[in-house]
Amino acid sequence: MTPLQDQLDEITARTRDLVQEERLAVGERAVEELFATGIEDRILPVGATAPDFALKDSNGKLVRSADLLALGPLVVKFFRGRWCPYCITDLEAWRDLYGHLREREALMVAIGPQLERQSDFMAGQHGLPFPVLTDTNNAVAEQFGLVYTVPEYMREYYLSILVNIPFMNGEQSWRLPLPATYVIGKDRKVLFAEAHADFRVRPEPEEALAAACAACGR
Q1: Where does residue 198 rank: exposed (0-12), middle (13-18), buried (19+ CB within 10 A)?
Q2: Total domain count for the chain?
């Protein structure tokens, strides 16, 4: 299988071929400014105790982290929204590995701020076999140290390409989570944690899968 980062780099290359340089510069500025805030250094780290959460899935069913962790280690994927091709590619890579994850008695959820109907559409369109949970107002992502506010100039850019984040999320804050990958042990300890200010960079699923397998003793 093609490494995830290679797939993401291909999206970036295609974008650079299609989008004017001055418009690309807007996104580059936003990434650089977000990185400069030091947000990557403030995420919930390995060894910390993960917060409990209870969020609704794309069918409106309440999913509790405590119930999942009673069954095995938990992979938690925070994503920006179904409008982000990098997030979709990332989640599809996990979709393709989900069988291996379950064979090792681990579970997985994806968490994003979008409304349930958006998650329902995304899960169906991309065949996601794991729960896609709605984190209203990024309340859980905030506990993981992942939340930032989209700057005004980037809001204008998103709207110009028909990405209406307030409509997708059902609220007007323009806050998003860093895309992040966590593995949480049955005792709620964080075993793997990675998030990047540059949304085009993601860890390979196999890295997190290894941490989940180690927690299962497999």
Answers
A1: middle
A2: 1
